[in-house]
Write a structure and sequence with these properties.
Elements lengths: L2 E5 L4 H13 L4 E3 L10 H13 L5 E6 L3 H7 L7 E3 L3 H9 L5 E5 L5 H13 L6 H14 L3
Parallel strand pairs: 1-2, 1-3, 3-5, 4-5
Helix pairs in contact: 2-3, 4-5
């Protein structure tokens, strides 16, 4: 398992906490930024992380902004990426099991510190169930190709 991490300024501290957690778990990670808490734009880091996954350099990603909402919107604009905002262990598991999410998004200002480790561990440990979910994900993929 290889993980790509990214954040904007509002998610920087939580991203650093997650990076340390991944280190303790011996999970290799690539950090695409931000490199500080100085003001930055979440779409830049969402796109960079998505490209790392699509290029095969990481299996999963974790993105953090103030609420996780901006990151999930931006990451889901990249064709082939499925990002999910999780706010507890159940939503992190379901994002993987039912939606085969590549990227987990979290809110640096909204995710309680005590919840971060269990959410991250659930997201990384859960496998996609396949089966009845395959057809739904195929429909989602077709949405990326439709004319506007």
């Amino acid at each position: 398992m290889r993980v790509v991490l990214g954040s904007d300024h509002a998610g920087f501290n939580l991203k650093e906490t997650i990076k340390a957690l991944l280190g303790r778990m011996s999970v290799p990670c690539e950090d695409v930024g931000a490199s500080s808490a100085a003001s930055s734009d979440y779409p830049d880091f969402a796109a960079a992380a998505a490209r790392v996954i699509l290029d095969g350099r990481a299996d999963r990603g974790i993105l953090v902004c103030g609420t996780g909402i901006g990151m999930v919107i931006a990451a889901n604009k990249i064709p082939g990426i499925r990002a999910a905002l999780a706010w507890n262990v159940a939503t992190a598991r379901l994002a993987r099991a039912h939606n085969d999410a590549h990227i987990l998004t979290l809110g640096g200002r909204t995710t309680p510190a005590a919840d971060v480790e269990p959410i991250v561990r659930a997201f990384l440990a859960t496998e996609y169930e396949g089966g009845r979910h395959d057809g739904r994900l195929a429909k989602v993929a077709r949405l990326e190709c439709r004319d506007r």
